[in-house]
């Protein structure tokens, strides 16, 4: 520390600022406690209403549309210097902790621990939720359907590699609702262990999608290394401890969990690489004011079927955000369409458009209306 930094005047100024921070911290603690008590009162009112109605239904503590609006309001009130996303993240953790006072939210996700899906689950529900890993997307669906957990988190599409077909296929045989979505920026790192000889790497483990997302970087830096696709990035990270000539591609969470070093960071070919995840549950979600709706439509195999499907959305000015085609289970060369669009199922124009689509379709099922991703 220089003489100038250590002068009595500077020490007095620092002391004054620290006292001000202490005062603010005390006020923040008091307000968070006050908010938590208010959240408990909300839970008590909900319980009393169900009891008065003689209902045996479980109390619904988590409301996706309410949480989305709280986060949006926090971002709109933010005047810096923290950015909007950081402010919303802090509010998310406060809400997660308050909710856990009544009943921690149980969330199933596509595991194992250290995957991007776990990161998405914590981003959406906060660290006070009880997040449980499962080895397959089918298992996540089954856990939610059985009522063993409140919600599930599954990947649905990546901006570089496209749709996750296994997730879409599970919706065909499920009655679960989409209750929300999470968008996660995906940063891939080349990880090594404490026994890795970094100048002798001949094998690189990762999930097939991650290998694809880093293809150009690998071609340039490790053209002769064997690329081994495994079940998940976390599985790739776990394999390194006993292999001196291997590396793994995974995210920071896997590096932290398995005590690995980042040898090269952000090696994804596309700097805006991101993955979208869906929150699946059993409840229908009320409108939040900025929503999406997902539907699956089976059209009759006849000329003009695709035009008939899309025309009502065009007529009513509804923005289609995704259209995917999957083979139908009903027969060869029959297809179903998965469609995401802006708006809520209770919106008048959405109802009109879906009525017209339903009149022309062999089958139409609404998978859910839910708040657009906030963070």
Outline of the structure:
With 375 residues, this protein is of the alpha/beta class. It has helices at 8-52, 64-77, 84-102, 116-125, 137-146, 165-172, 208-213, 215-221, 233-238, 252-257, 305-315, 348-360; strands spanning 106-110, 130-134, 151-158, 162-163, 177-185, 189-192, 203-207, 226-230, 246-250, 261-264, 274-281, 291-299, 320-327, 335-342, 361-371. Strand 13 (320-327) and strand 14 (335-342) form a beta hairpin.
Give a verbal description of the structure:
This protein is of the alpha/beta class. It has 4 domains: about 1-60, no CATH class; about 100-185 and about 275-280, Periplasmic binding protein-like II (D-Maltodextrin-Binding Protein, domain 2, 3-Layer(aba) Sandwich); about 190-265, Periplasmic binding protein-like II (D-Maltodextrin-Binding Protein, domain 2, 3-Layer(aba) Sandwich); about 290-370, ACT domain (Alpha-Beta Plaits, 2-Layer Sandwich). The chain has 12 helices and 15 strands. The strands form 3 sheets. Strands 1, 2, 3, 4, 5 and 11 form a 6-stranded mixed β-sheet that branches. A 5-stranded mixed β-sheet has the order 8-7-9-6-10. The longest helix is centred in the first third of the chain and has 45 residues, at about 10-50.
């Amino acid at each position: 520390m220089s003489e100038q930094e250590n002068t009595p005047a500077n020490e007095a100024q620092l002391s004054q600022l620290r006292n001000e921070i202490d005062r603010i911290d005390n006020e923040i603690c008091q307000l968070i406690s006050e908010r938590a008590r208010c959240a408990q009162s909300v839970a008590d009112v909900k319980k009393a209403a169900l009891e008065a109605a003689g209902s045996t239904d479980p109390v619904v503590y988590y409301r996706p549309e309410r949480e989305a609006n709280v986060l949006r309001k926090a971002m709109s009130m933010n005047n810096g210097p923290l950015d909007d996303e950081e402010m919303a993240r802090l509010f998310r953790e406060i809400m997660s902790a308050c909710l856990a006072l009544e009943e921690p939210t149980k969330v199933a996700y596509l595991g194992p621990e250290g995957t991007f899906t776990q990161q998405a689950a914590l981003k959406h529900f906060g660290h006070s939720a009880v997040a449980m890993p499962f080895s397959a997307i089918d298992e996540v669906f089954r856990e939610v359907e059985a009522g063993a957990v409140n919600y599930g988190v599954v990947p649905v599409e990546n901006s570089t590699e496209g749709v996750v077909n296994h997730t879409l296929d599970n919706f065909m045989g499920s009655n679960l609702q989409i209750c929300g979505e999470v968008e996660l920026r995906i940063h891939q790192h080349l990880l090594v262990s404490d026994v890795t000889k970094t100048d002798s790497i001949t094998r690189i483990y990762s999930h097939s999608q991650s290998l694809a997302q880093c293809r150009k970087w690998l071609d340039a830096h490790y053209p002769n290394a064997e690329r081994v696709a495994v079940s998940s990035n976390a599985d790739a990270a776990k394999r390194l401890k006993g292999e001196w000539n291997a590396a793994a591609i995974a995210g920071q969470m896997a590096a932290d969990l398995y005590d690995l070093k980042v040898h090269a960071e952000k090696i994804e070919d596309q700097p805006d690489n991101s993955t979208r995840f869906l929150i699946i549950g059993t409840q229908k979600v009320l409108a939040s004011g900025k929503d999406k709706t997902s539907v699956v439509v089976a059209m009759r195999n006849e000329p003009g079927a695709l035009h008939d499907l899309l025309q009502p959305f065009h007529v009513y000015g509804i923005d289609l955000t995704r259209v995917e085609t999957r083979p139908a289970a009903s027969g060869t060369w029959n297809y179903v369409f998965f469609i995401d669009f802006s708006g809520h199922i209770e919106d008048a124009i959405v109802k009109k458009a879906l009525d017209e689509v339903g009149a022309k379709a062999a089958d139409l099922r609404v998978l859910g209306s839910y708040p657009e991703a906030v963070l």
